Amino acid sequence: MKEVVARSEIRRHQLESIESPFFAKCKVERSLSNPFSVTGLPELIRICGVSIEDCQLEYHKRRIIEKIERGEWFLILDRPFKPLTYIELEKNYGFRFAASACRQLMTEKVNRCLSRGPGRWVTLNIQADLATNALSFAANWLTSRGDEGRVFLSDGKDYANTFRTIIQEWQPLIDVEEHLKAQSAHHEFGELRRIRQQFVEADDHWQISGSSWHWRPVTADIEYELREK
Length: 229
Description:
With 229 residues, the chain is an alpha+beta fold. 30% of the residues lie in helices and 24% in strands. It contains 6 helices and 8 strands. The longest helix is centred in the middle third of the chain and has 15 residues, at 99-113.
């Protein structure tokens, strides 16, 4: 099953089938190359005032993906990468649940806090440092004025020295990762860590030039931590 549904329809679906918007937006963006492969996606495109033929144009694509980012539409999958929780739906998207659901939530939360073991760090959210970045963008704009004919923010150097923080959660290993169990570090499931990154030009052996603009320290969406010997 692969479907996008409006916010008003979300209660018809099981919580464990609702993909986190952070990961859903990338999947929906890729599906724009074949909108009819996802139930409801042609309807979302139409509501955005975009034709199927034009949905991959950058401006129109941005309007569609914003619906997912803001929680106005959700992606439903049989096996989502990071299903939403009651806490996230209430805190981030304004949903309210009956007392029975809240009791279930508290039970799950307590059980998670009491659990500790091997796992992996999974990205939950990325937060930009707006105040610091505003100063960096201003400085970069002054520098870019010498690049005649180039649109600002069209080059990596325009984002130089901006910062963001990645928030990752310690989650259990899935079935295909069981072979890492003996080597994995142990943490409390649900524990969060924050990684502050800076956008810089640094070594990149995949590039012919030997360098590229990217976030440092480099951090994957899923990271494994090995037990110290």
